[in-house]
Amino acid sequence: MKKDIVVVKVGTAVLGKRSITARSRLGRLDPVFIRELARQACILKGMGFHVIIVSSGAIGAGMEAIGLDKRPRDLNRLQACAAIGQGKLMKLYEENFRFHKRHAAQILLTREDFSSVKRISNAKKTIISLLDDYNAVPIINENDTIAAEEIKFGDNDRLSAFVAKTISARLLIMLTNVDGLYEPGSRRLVPVVKKIDKRIERMAQPSCSCLGRGGMISKIQAAKIAVSSGVTAIIANGRARDVLVNIADNKINGTVFLPSKAKRR
What we know:
Layout: E1 5-10, H1 12-15, H2 22-25, H3 31-46, E2 50-55, H4 58-66, H5 75-99, E3 104-109, H6 117-132, E4 137-142, H7 148-153, H8 156-166, E5 171-176, E6 192-193, H9 198-202, H10 216-227, E7 232-237, H11 243-248, E8 254-257
Parallel strand pairs: 1-2, 1-5, 2-4, 3-4, 5-7, 6-8
Antiparallel strand pairs: 7-8
Helix pairs in contact: 3-5, 4-5, 8-10
């Protein structure tokens, strides 16, 4: 493993179609955005990076396929939505990466996997083989169909941070629908965070949309996991033009969370 690894996390709010109302956008994956994400990921690979994508969207895609207007509260129905939607999500990724002559590889993980040395070691070896041997792009998601705890408490922000930590990534880029972390009571963006303390944590407010389970607070928590492992974390607007290419080229419009110099990669 000689190339630097970039882990890109994309949430439901970014993956969904833009529309006038949230209801008309409910769960509908935006193929134009996924096409653009694949294009940028392949540009990064051409720049010499390995790219891993941690993607939400399975439950929302399943809801759209079934015709549901509201996110189910019953666990079994949530798992059923995830089972139906995961294949539709991966089909979009595979089609768009194949256009660039790359393979998209599905990997489903749970929080329990990270507590097992053997299981996470096997997952790491698989990811490294995909990156080094086959030049593929791993698409990682929580295994919502079997992991009750992940649906109730989990989010892909923290999953992406654990992936970045496990795989010794250089960058964790969390794409969302805002430009980054803002100063309280203003629209002034915080460009760089050198230490995640109580003041920084108070800037984030928890949220839960009808589809997603994260919010800025979970992204701060994910950034804390990343920087404690020497990984630089960035929160940026996923809808900004060429956002990944610009970040790779050090033209960052977002919030950067720096690890300590002793741990920085």
